[in-house]
Amino acid sequence: MQNWLQVLAVTVMLIGCGTIDARSVQDISAWGIGWQLKAPQNRIGPAIPPVVNFLRPANPAIASADPPSAVVASFRTIVLGLKGAISGRVDRRLIGVFAVSGQGCALRGYPVRDGGRTIAAFFTLDSSAMAGNPSGWRLCHPQNLPAGQDMAFRGLLISTLKRTLDP
Question: CA 60, CA 21: separation in Å to the nearest integer?
Fold first, then answer.
């Protein structure tokens, strides 16, 4: 039931996406509170249809995908290991990480704005762009990542969160 309500809330919000900037969502109230009821480490999964529809005008090849179990496990470990302010930001402001195919880069953040202020964010993750060694990842924004899969993914998550929430 909770997942159904979450999908309904996102669907209602995204119905009007043809009139807004495709790079951001303009009203956090339309997301409802469903995402806030889910533990942050569990906010990863396939992109739901309204998210795919939101992204499709900018990228017709985009499709929902299942995130690889290793990526899900890594995400959960990273989120559970966060401390202090960054942990609070993820808990209060990260709506979710939605897995897609056809994005062309590893992790992209989309701000959610309310009254012109960035209130939250959601990410889209293309795990095929993250295949292999982190030095070979196709990044949405150039940056240096630490060595090792988990540390690189952690760095990518945190930098995307900061870039999306602090434009």
Answer: 16
Residue 3 pLDDT > 60, yes or no? no
Could you please report the per-residue DSSP string of 60-115?
TT-EE-PPPHHHHHHHHHHHHH--HHHHHHHHHHEEEEEEEES-SSSEEEEEEEET
Q: CA separation (Å) from 71 to 40, 47, 127? A: 15, 15, 8
Residues 32/6, Cβ–Cβ less than 8 Å: yes
pLDDT of 23 reads: 58
The pLDDT tens digits for 33-48 are 677 788 999 999 999 8
CA dist., res. 62 & res. 18, Å (int):
17
